[in-house]
Amino acid sequence: MLNSTAAQIAADITALPQRTTATVRKVRRQHSRALRTADAAFVIGLARDLLARDSREGRSGLRWVAYELIRNHKPAFASLNDALLEELGQGMHSWDTVDDFSRTLSGPAWLHGMASDALIHRWAASKDLWWRRAALVSTVGLNMRSYGGAGDTPRTMAICEMLAADREDMVQKALSWALRELVWHDPAAVQSFLDTHDQHLAARVKREVRAKLTTGLKNPRRKPSVPSPLGTDKGR
DNA sequence: CTCAGTGCCCTTTCGAGAAT
DNA sequence: ATTCTCGAAAGGGCACTGAG
Fold first, then answer.
1. Which positions of chain B lie under 7 Å from any protein Cβ?
2. Is the pTM of this model over 0.70?
């Protein structure tokens, strides 16, 4: 039963005339609807099946769909815990697989109390850069309004502190993201972090976070699109 | 030559409002 | 209550600059 559901989802996606975020998500929505009455264990099992297929066939689309199916099934999402989250994240190998996992599952799970602080801290200390990035992106879930995040300075800062001096580009970008998301709730704490870690932070992090603090944007436009009296902009 | 730092590009997502 | 719409802003990538 499980296998056939996973096979059906994979087939539906393969059959799409063109595979885009929108078209794949539409397929996912249809299956979420059909799974409304399924129990948590079934949906988790289905996700496992999809993840196995994904790594076997190298199709990251299925990984993403697996995560979204759990996120959009209340009992399945509520059944998440440390061990399950870590299992579901196995095999993350790129920025997008990490972001799918962290923004869809681990961040929201942390926010709602199904993931422990210890778990996220363990990820932040991992030798694997993708798990370190997952720890940072998970804090985005604590602070993003659309996820119900009300702002969590202590838990966000704890992870940022651990990775302030990380040299991996993918980790630095995520650190920048985590800090900028907290700016909405606690700009003073973010500014203080920049001051404290000025010597160790990557230039990119400093620049983007400083820009966010002062202009509200990560990459402020060179000129606030003033109608350009003399055609000076438009450079490459 | 190498590499940190920067500016800007392309695609997707956010977020608020309108429409159903 | 959803779903749709659309401008703004997010994501990472990459070419370019210049210091060493």
1. 4-9, 12-16
2. yes
